[in-house]
Amino acid sequence: MIIYESTKQDFLNDVEAGDINKKIEEKYLALIGRPHESMKRSWNNSMSFMYIALNDISIPQTSGVSIEFKIPYTTCKIDFLLSGKDKFQKNVLIIIELKQWQEVQKVEGQEAQVKTMMQGRQVQTNHPSYQAWSYSSLIEDYNESVQIKKIELYPCAYLHNYERKNPEPLVDSSYQYYVSKAPIFMKGDISKLRDFIKRYVKYGDNKETLYIIENGKIKPSKSLQDSLSNMLNGNPEFTLIDDQKVVYEKALSIARKSHSDGKKRVLIVEGGPGTGKTVIAMNLLVQLTNEDLVCQYVTKNSTPRNVYSFKLSGNLKKTRIDNLFKGSGSYVNSKNNEFGALIADEAHRLNEKSGMFKNKGENQIKEIIHAAKASIFFIDENQRVDIHDIGRVEEIQKFVKNEHAEVDVVKIESQFRCNGSDGYLAWLDDVLGIRETANFDGFDMRYDVRVIDDPEELRKFIEDKNKTNNKSRLVAGYCWNWIGESKNRPDMFDISIPGTNFKASWNLANTLTWAIDPRSIKEVGCIHTCQGLEFEYVGVIFGEDMRYEQGKIITDYTKRAKTDQSLKGIKRIAKENPDKANKIADEIIKNTYRTLMTRGQKGCYVYCCDKNLSRYIQERLNKFHTRDYN
Length: 630
Prior knowledge:
By secondary structure, the protein is α/β, with parallel strands linked by helices. Helix 2 crosses helix 3 (37-54). The strands form 5 sheets. Strands 16-24-21-17-20-19-18 form a 7-stranded mixed beta sheet, sandwiched between helices. The longest helix is centred in the middle third of the chain and has 19 residues, at 243-261. The chain has 20 helices and 24 strands. Strand 22 and strand 23 (552-555) form a beta hairpin.
């Protein structure tokens, strides 16, 4: 979708006549909605600078100009496009990311991130060169016409209000890859921007290239498909076993049918921890992408998306495939059947509203089903760990009916984590008071469970296990505040346990792939950074939100950290209905520790702040035969 389109000469005429803002705003209002005042100011400012840049007779008058081009299947809009032909008469497209910035700070330890002022406050955002390059990559990877016609794309960034510093943070060596792909121009660099454009645009194209971009068929590129397949093939981590393969084939069949006949279909896959839901999801993402479906992997939490996009990136930059991995709030404005398939992993974590303030959209389940011909939901209702989590089978089925879709529900029974011990999961449910099971006296598989009396000893166990292959981590209940200043400072400790020498930080903001970053072994993960992931060994710290009193498990939501958003609103509910609030909080706290204690493939070590809880869990372990573990 293009908001404004013209030739270069008509663009110059519109700016000279003072009509450019009016034309952009009218089209924006008709296609998207009322623009913010800040957007209108931005257009007014930036278009004047682009007028100066293009007002050169050497840039062909019949070159195409596009403003606010929305890349299909994304929320991304490209500020300015200039089209034409090079000296060989090949179609070329100049992508220009425009910024009003005046100040910038480098962000240490995070790829292509900077800090700048926006709307009166400092925010962290993408480096302008990265942004321009990523838009170019999206078009290359998904526009078949660009691939077939071999259209050359040349991204750059223009910060017309920004004065170059010495040293200049925007061209720091840490950003060099992206700056080399998309040069950055600043205040006073208009002649350099002109030279960049003239280097590639030699002849006008009367908007031909813009037409090709706007109307090109959308499908994943062969290079993207090959890169994904090469990473998946032969990697035992993604090998399908037993009923994983059965569910995978069923999901493929449903997606293929919907692609063929256009009928909306939904598959709900139920499975407990370690049944391989994410393994199936990754295989589906790769195979359906290989079959030319526009397909995305969807989760509420960013951590699984970051980890699996990194693992699947292979020899590509991770950011090249980031468009395959989306947050659950990405489909608020999607059209009906816009996507071939959407794969919602951790679907129990879906919310009603989207956005930072939970004020966007109507319902994430509804939006996903509406946006895709085929929707696959992977769900474990016992892993709902937030007051806003609405992911239930019956809730999905309600929207299936509203969307007139076909639905099927399947279960994965085989357990591939916790050394394949279904008994451990049942024992854990019994121990935590989630439900009574036949496993009161223990479990019959070789799974290493230990209660550790000292958190420092627990940390040492996990660090020792991690030396083998970087697959062990320390996690904790969210009972310690995440101090704002500590997010980028490893010398500041969020977690301190009275009566011990233990101090630690929650995972730092610069470890987006905390679960696989070797440096993060010194940090502690919470439910939001480890749900959907697995390790070989996991160390779990029980905070004061769970204790053992008078022969039963007691949960106490007042001991949760103030920075934890998972129980936000519970105090309001408690004022109106204390029993309801306690029931909600009890389920969330128990599900949280159940989820943490099922992240390990080979073992789980536990430390409890409440000594009675430690003794209780140890007693439950003592009730069955003690085994030797390797």
